[in-house]
Amino acid sequence: MNYKFIGIDVSKDKFDVAIKKEHGYNNMVFSRNETGLKKFITYLEENVENPWCCMEATGHYSEEIAEYLVKVQVPCSIINPMQIKNFARSKLLRNKNDILDARIITDFALANPPRKFEPRSKSQNELRGLTKLLSTLKSHLVQLKNKLDSMQGDIAKKYLIESIAELEQKISDLEKELDKVVKNDSEMNEQFKLITSIPGIGSIISYSILERIPDIKLFTHAKQFPAFIGVSPKQN
Known about the structure:
Blueprint (H helix, E strand, L loop, with lengths): L3 E7 L3 E7 L4 E7 L2 H14 L3 E6 L3 H12 L4 E4 L1 H10 L7 H14 L10 H27 L5 H30 L2 H11 L6 H10 L11 H6 L7
Parallel strand pairs: 1-4, 4-5
Antiparallel strand pairs: 1-2, 2-3
Helix pairs in contact: 5-6, 5-8, 7-8
């Protein structure tokens, strides 16, 4: 099937779209919300045959759009920003803005047909949200404990101690929820057991690994995994 690659530059409140025409590009802007996405899909249905949308990896901004596209059966890809950046350099572009970025993504996809995006499972999304919240609460707990020694006044100290106890309880509850999410997903639970069998890796680190990696079967050999997570040294 001949796909029409479409570049999307995603930002917090909007996403810019670039569709290559015979002469130049057709550029559009949509709000990054459900209304904007519906308008974009309607435009594709009415104007583009066999669309394939491509965007840079911008955390949950790009993933939300990609997951929506998968839901409405529009193939899409999320591309490593370093690839786009180096591709833009190769074209000797001097200017940079959202419209140009969308065009560059379109040109990159045309020159380098990307891999299809596979959405995360519901369990992995739950795990990601819980680990982020756990990290935030633990950081806040450290701040409160650091203030305890310097806190003056019995009343203030009493409230601070109560706040620390409440936060510790919430952290404990969150860790139980994390454990529950993993155990309720048989495949994830199997991966969890394998990861924690490595000396020095406990439950919390294992949760962080599981919420970050895509389907482990996508890696064809072991060296790809450390490169993916950024711990593989390179010669320079």
